[in-house]
């Protein structure tokens, strides 16, 4: 029987690549997405299409409401900052940061992993082109894994769960090259913080990092921009 | 200005006591409860009453759906086991265990703490009469705290957040005595895993531990039993 893995799937480029990597390693894949009050629900449509194409065993979308405590431009009615070039991408933590988002997502993944008896959780965090989020750092992931192994029945009963971060140390360009070699169709992904009619703005931090990645990979980004 | 604290409030005896302790230490209290698909929503009514009586600054109820991945008698349609005495309370992890529940609850509390600039999260876990849950153990809580300090913007910027567990090492009887000394009205709390018309069953693990606690404290439990 195949080993199982939970994959956090946002509909973005990184998590789609992460899913392809998990699949290439032979795991039976369980994809988990969140409806968390994000302003752009198009990413959930993308997540569904990616999960379907990857032929995952199960894909669930969990409803949670991060708006109930506010605090981010991704879930509140604050304008997403636009830039004219990659040089303006912030080094500090940007206002699009959602408090404790990865911690909350990983915690749901942990619960599902316990129910499914999966011992791997894949998350597409990246410490290089990471846009300054504290919960994308390697020391955070390691610490989460330690905690997870004390939190669950499986942890108590002895089998170790690991948080897999195959994208942690590679550039956006390398992520894209890896995904292309595994057959990821990046036209099915979306990255923009502020898309209009399904088209990406090309000027938010997230778009600028994506475009730089495709440039590095020497490939044209197949999605549409405004 | 008062320091702020987030208090996880379930409507049960332990968290009501925890809130009273946080208040007695002078914190401005922010209470957080969850609608998580539990079978007995009466506990949320109790949580509201307790929060109101304690005059908290804010009380939010966060909607999450733990049923989406199943796995527990508290959220699924499995019978809650009934016992005839405290001696039958399980030493192993019982089927009423909800996978990763405290991890998920603490993660929402962490997000709210970051938004509110609170550096204390109170949770009423207990390692003595704890009914065998892995996520009530002191080593789990310590590990969660370490992770939390790497997860957030505040963690990055240097101020340490702590998870406060004032009930960790005391018996149920001592919890009740502490609460009574702080004026907690235990008639407003509910502990039963399987209440009927607001009355507690008196025979589930949770009821049996509660009744033993009141016996230890030498006080009559003010709630109604079937």
Question: How do the strands and helices of this protein lay out in sequence?
Answer:
The structure is a homodimer of 226-residue chains.
Chain A: E1 4-8, H1 13-24, E2 28-35, H2 42-53, E3 58-63, H3 101-116, E4 120-122, H4 138-151, H5 153-157, E5 162-164, H6 172-181, H7 205-217
Parallel strand pairs in A: 1-2, 1-4, 2-3, 4-5
Structure description:
Two copies of one chain form a homodimer. The first copy, chain A, is an alpha/beta fold and 226 residues long. Chain A has a single domain (4-80, 98-191), classed as 3-Layer(aba) Sandwich (Rossmann fold). Helices cover 36% and strands 11% of the residues of chain A. The first copy, chain A, has a five-stranded parallel β-sheet with strand order 3-2-1-4-5, sandwiched between helices. The mean pLDDT of chain A is 86. The A-B interface holds A 60, 62-66, 68-71, 93, 97-104, 106-108, 110-112, 114-116, 134-135, 137, 139-140, 143-144, 146-148, 150-153, 155-156 and B 60, 62-66, 68-71, 93, 97-104, 106-108, 110-112, 114-116, 134-135, 137, 139-140, 143-144, 146-148, 150-153, 155-156.
